[in-house]
Structures are given as structure tokens and as C-alpha cells.
Description:
mainly beta, disordered N terminus, six-stranded mixed β-sheet, about 45% strand
Amino acid sequence: MRMGLTGRGLTLALLVALGTACHEGKETRAVQATAVVDSNLLDFGEVPVGEWREREVRIRNVGYVPFSALDALGLANNPSFEVELTEGARVMPGESHVVLVRFHPLTEGLATETVHVTTDANQGQEARVQVMGMGTPTQIGVEPPLLDYETLEVDSERTLEVTVTNPVDLPLTLSVAGPNADPFTADTVTIPPLSSRKVSTRYLPRALGAMGARLEILSCEGCTPSTVELKGNSVASAFVFDPAPVPFDLIPVHERTQSFTRARNITWRPVTVERLVTSDHAFVPVSRPEGSTVGPGEVVEMQMEFAARYSGPNVGDLTVHYTSDKARNSQVILDARGGRPTLAVTPVALDFGEVPVGGKVERVIRISNAGTNGNLLFTGVASGGDSPQFSVDVPTRGAEAYPWSGGVWPVLEATPGLPIAPGADALELKVYFEPTAAGTWTASLRVRSDDLFNPEREIILTGRSRATAPCVYELVPQPLMDFGNVTPGRGAVLGFQFRNPGSAECAVKDIHISNDGGGVFFMPGGRLTGGVVAYDTGFSAMVAFRPQAEGDYTGELQLTVSNPAAPTVRLPLRGVSRQSCLVATPSFVDFGPIRYDCAATPRKTYVANRCSSPITVTGADIGHGTSNQFSLVTPMTAPVTLGPGEGFELEVGYARNVHGQHFSPLYLRTANEPSPYLVPLLAETNHEGIQVDRYTQGTDSQLDVLFVVSNTTTMQPYQERLQAAIPQWLQTAQTNGVDVRVGVTSTGLVARGPQCGGGANGGEAGRLFPVDGSRPRVVSSTSANAAADIQANLGVGMCHNLVQGLETMRQALSAPLSEQMDDLRTPQPNDGNAGFLRAAARMAVVVLADEDDNSGFGPESYIQFLQTLKGTGMSHRSQLYGLVPTDAACATAGSGAPRFTAVAQGTGGQVANVCGQSYDGLLEQVIQRAGEPQADFPLTAAPTGLGEMSVRIQGQPVPATQWVYDAEQNAIVFQPGAIPLAGQSVEVRYRSVCAAP
């Protein structure tokens, strides 16, 4: 028999009774009928909704007499299952009879049923089989799976067809769903079983914009639908215009000018242009596209003319009437006010002069937008003529370079275009002349853009080249540039010198790092183009080594000279990076630019032991550099053993009798470190009478402040006065937009007594207070408790009898304290100052003391330390300010503070009287100096006059109207609007007299 079942799976339970009647013997039991079912579980697995699967269950006769299969049915009456007992129900011994079970899922998910089988056998008269199956989504066919109606005008329609194939014997239902379903409809709701139909769908948008929906096709309620993606875009009209608005040149009254725009059909259907109409007869269509058909994506150009009238408008509209599904129109603005994006290039000609064959020189062109409305797009360059003798670099904007997107010289592309805004914005492009043979060479360089009327500007390139004898040169240092040991995470700079001692000129080019050792070697000023080095002249340049991890590193500097037999010159580079117990403060000795006729003041570095055990410094020597201009004023004559934290000063002299830049390594050697510790020596000798000061503009609005507070027994009223000033000081910082980070240390270099508190007994030795970490030791002005924490930290106690604030300042801002979370030389945990100093922030040291400093080194040592704290060219970024005794009327422990005052004046800071009733004035100056980009740059010498003074930013002269000399500060002060940007270099040249020795 056959009947319906539901569920997904089939299990047959076998119930076979093998017992016999107790009163029968073995012979009677042997002839009884026994029925068994061959499975108690039937699993159909996964079957798509609407499809059929069939399985068999067999009733077997395992006895010796026949029996009949009477019935098979589903107990749960699940409609997804059918059960059929086949014909011929008599089952002979050893034979079997088939029960058919069919699975036809009507829903998705698990379906189950129990099949009950009955027979008239003596044993096994009834059996149950569990049946199961899983309904899965119907495999409905849709073609195509995406209907893209493309773009059409609002309130117009488009119809597309999709073919839906129903593979099952269930009807399918169709509906449109999704966030933008309303504009989409289908003409069919049901697909009959086992059939295929074309379904017509329509998109009729009533609003503008991109829209999307989906056509869902289901074989059952709640089933997973098969989908057809529907998408379309609605626009107000068929045409978009480029350019828009249509720009006209600004012309005088009674003159005429022409322009054009391109109208592109962005819809899916062809349209027919009917007529062009302008809003004023001052604008006249020149082209006549009436009657033309514009297909999808096609463009029609429309020429326009403007006639200027005294009283007439210079802005209007062009209306393009056209027919698509009905009469429609598109509009574009006509603008005759001028100011369209316009390509401007300066200069229009470049003459490179005469260059030896094999040389390379550069010139720079400036590409700008002479318009006032909208960006201009620079799209590339092309060259003709003798272009193999010339080349170009990548375009740049300030320090940012933009690689070419495609092409090879002489045609290079910058797609989709580099935008140039009107006004001061510009791109710069280096152009090179690199002759390969003697002769006179001329080429054209065409700068390309999206300027509508003049998309290209041509620059004429000319150059002459001459043959020359092979270059004879000297390159030092030799045999290699050795950086010694530079600890991981730090950097060092040395340099090379190229000199021409021969009788012929040398052409040098392409000076670069050819092997950077995995990124650790580089030229701080970037690769050099080259030039011509005349007899008995030369040039120098820096090479930097900045390892981030321990290791042994090698690299190479490479340049090309005018010697066909050996054109490539290589200089090996070597550096080691290991942790060291030595630390030098400052980490480099920089004399800066020195005049040939002025004696150079010796400079010092403080060499200390940063480890927790003694070390022996066995020697200090100056290695191979670019010259012998440096010498040790205080050479080591015997090994020096340094206990933890101990150190000594090394003083370096500079002869300054050879013009140019000079670089040498100062090597410090220890008994147990195989590679010498490097302290770079840097200097530059300029011509007589002319002083050169160089700076690099830093970032604004970030300020690190170290308060160095005396903890002697007479300091109570002054500490309290400074604490009272802190809330207003922080408010001033917030008002000026300055992010302040504050640390406090005492003037105590050695421990004195526990009454000072803070965990160091008054001997912070540069460690931030409190050393025991009972409060935050580094406080940000943005912290909710900033004022209270700083005030508490300023209370460093009153237990000491010795003020050594300059030395504790140096210790606080030097390695190892400045780099480590824990000072390994001391028993207190986590007492290092790491996290206080920020590389990009300005540095201000504020000393509070009622007597002068008693540190062991001269004030000039601490001035040099602060001037080098932020790196080369950044001496103006660190100042010391003093709240100290300034005259005898101040009744304090000391009558004056000449050492603190000297360091303040030497670093561009200021002092105020510690006996004053308010410290607000000096503290406000500290904030104001950091609240905006620095405008004042203090000079290193006093000018003799302004007649020969010149100022440059990024190598470009600055007009004298944009800066002034402030004699009181002895500083150059830039006018508002001319202040250098962060990262820009500043150079000041002036005539001065030599400072007194």
C-alpha cells in the first residue's frame, strides 16, 4: 500500500521475537514463520525542496514456512514522505518483500517519520523503521542573475527580461524585495511546476540616485529564495557637461571670446538634440547639433561665443532641449567671469650651460594654477628633440614626491592627475642635463594638464657639452666609512669628501646609497644630482646610520665620475649596533658653521657609565674622517674606571683652517666592548667675515617641561609660590592650544635625608620625582588631575644643602635615564625617565632655586648640551628658564645666580627674580613660545650690520619685507604669513665680528 509521510530521514526499528512457546519442542519451533526488517534507520540526506528520492526497506523471511506482509504505513502522516508496500505480499522462506519509501521535501529543514510494518509471521509480526531527511533550497535556474537597467531619466522606464526555470513539481512564487523595491516590478507572480518562463521586469524611478533591489523566487513559504539582482540609476537629464560651468576668458567690453563644452549622454537610450537656447543673447551657440542623435555614452561638442557688454551679465545658462522617451532638457552654467584653472609654468626656457661629457646638472621648473576657480590637474610630460640628453625626476610638492604612474622617458604619465589649487600651491619638477657626447643640444619639454584651452606648455631645454680628460679624484674617509658602535634605536651622522687634486675638471653625478644595509644607511639630504668639480676644489655630504636592532651592518655609497675607464666609484660603509655601557651627552659634537677668521670655541661631551657595574674606558681617539681638523683638547693619557653613573668630560677642538664641511668619528673604547662607541664630530668652515646659521623649523603646540626645583632647607616659600601658579599656567596652555608634558626633578645629585620624601632621600640625580612612583611622574596637561599632580610633585622637600641643578637637568634628559623605564644603577624599581621626552616637542627647563648652581662643569657645557638635545639644526628648540636670585635685594641663600643665568641666556631663555610675588610672567612666556610655529630664530653672533644679511627658507631667498632683525633678542623674526612650516630649513647669512675668546 502507499500513503503520505513527513520528515527528513528514515529509521527502521527491528523488533524480532525469537522466543518459542514453552510447551512446544524443538521440532515444532523449527517450522514457525519468522520475519525481520533489514534496517532500523533510513536517512535520505540532503534533498532540494520539490525533488524526489526513493529508498527500499526489505522484509525478510528467515524461518522455514511462508508468511504474508500485511501493511506498511507512516505513523506521523508526514506529507513529505510516501510509503508503498509492493504487490505480491506472500514471502517464502529465504525470500524478501520490498517496502518503498519516497522523500519529497515540501519545506527546508529536518523532516522525520516512523514507518510501521506488519506481517502474519509467528515471530516479528511488527517492526518500526525511523526515517529522516533534510530539505535544502531548490536549485531554481535564473538567467541572467543580474538585471542592470543602467542610467535613465527620472519618470522614465525600462523593461528587461529574466528567464526562470522551475525544476520541481511545486509552483514557484515571485516577489520584489530590498531597500529600494518600489521602482521595480515584475509581470509574473507564479511559475508552474516543471516549466520555464520569461519574466518581464520594469524599472520606473520617481526619485534621483542609484537604486537596488532583488527579485526573489521561492519554492515554499519560508524557503531560501533564489535571487536576481536589480539595479538602476536615475538622473534628472540625459546629458552631463565637461567642463561645467563652461568657462570663458575675462575680456574687455565689446570684445568676443569663444569656449566649448562636451555634452555626454549618460543614459541607456539614444536621444535627439532639438535645439540650444541661452538665457541671454550675450551668449551664442556657434555649433548647430540640432537633429543629431547622441547614442549612449556618445559625446557632442558645443561651441559657444560670449560678447561682452558694458551692462550685460557675464553669467548665464545654456539649455539643451532633446527628445528621449519624451521631450526633456539639460542645463549648464556659462561663466565669463574668468578664473578657470590655467596651466602656468616657470621658467619657459632652461639653459644648462656647458657641462663636461659624463656630468649631470639640474634645474627646477615650477608648475602652478594661474586660475582662481577650481583645481588644475597635472597629467604628465613629453619631450622631443635631443631628449636622450635630458631627463626629469618625479614631481614634488614640498617634501612629498609623486611617482609617475606610467610611461618611459621621453613620455611620462601622472594619471589620473595631480591636483594643483589656485594661489600658492605648486608642483616642482627637476630637469636634468646629462650629456653623453660633446655637442650642442636642444630639446622641448611639454608639460601637460587638463587646462581646457592650453593643456600643454612648452619649455625649451638647451645645453652644451665638452670632452674632458679622465677625472682624478680623492675620496675620504678610506678605506671605508666606519660608524663603530651605535646603540639600537639611535642614529649617527658622518660624512665623506670628494676632492679634485688633478689638472682637469671632474664631472660627478648620481651620488647615492647603492646598498642601504636593509634601510640602516641613508643620506639625510637625499641623493645628490652631481655637478662639476674644478681643480683643487671638492664637496662633502652626510651619511647617516640608524639601526633599529642589534647586528653587524654593511652598505655602500656610490657615485659616477667622468672617467670612461672607471666611471663607478664605491665607498664601503660599516656599522655595528650593540648595547653599550657608555653614553655620551651630547651624543654628537657639532661646531656648526665657523668662520675661517674666527677661533672656534672647544666643545665638550660628557662620557658616563650607564650600567650598574664599573667599566674601564681604555681610550678615546679620532678615527679616519674627511680631514684632520678635529683634535682632543683633553686627551686620555691613561685608562679611566667609571663606577655606575660616573663620568668625565672630553673636550674637542676644531682648527677651522680648511674651508668646507668636516666629519670625523670620535671612538670611545672600553675593555669589554669589541667595537668602539661612536661620537660623531661635525663642523663647517666658511669664508672670512660671513657667519652662517642654520635651523630646522619644528612642530608647534607640543611642549615638554622639566621643572628643576631646589630641595635645600630655605625653599619652602618659593616652592609654594610655584605650586600656586600651576592652575593658571595650565589654563594658559589650554587657551593657546599647547599640549604640555611635565616632569619634576630636584637639584639634589646625592642623597641627603629621608625628610625630603619621594623615595630618593633628596638625591634624585635627575630621576623624575617622586622616584618611588607614589604619584604619576610624567603628567600630561590633558589629565583630569594635572594641576594637583604637578603641584604635589613640585614639593620635592627641603633637606639638602647643595644645589647642582644643571647637572641633575643633564642627567634627567640624557641616556640612560631618558631611555629606560628603570635605572639599573639604582636599587629603586622603575625609576627611569622613559616616556617623558617627545622627539617632536619643544623643550623647556624651568629652574627654581634661591642660590646659584654648584655643578662641576662650566655653563658652556650645559649650553652645548641643550643646543644639541633636539638634533642638528634644532638648537632653538630647547631653552632654560630660571626663577633665581637676580640682584642683591633678593634676600635668599645666595645673592645671585650667574651660572643659571648664563645657561638661560645662552639657550635663548630668560630669568625672573625668585623673590618676585608672581611667577606668572615667566611661565606664560614658556607657553607662548610653544603655542605657534616659531617665528624668532636667535643668531649665534652679533651682526655688524644688515647690509649683507640674507635669509633663505628651503634654499629660496626670503624678501627682506618678510623678516626683521630684533637687536634686543639678536634674532631674525619672520612676519606673520612668512613663518617657516614644520620641517623646513632656515639659513641666515650675515657679516659679524668674531666673538671674544
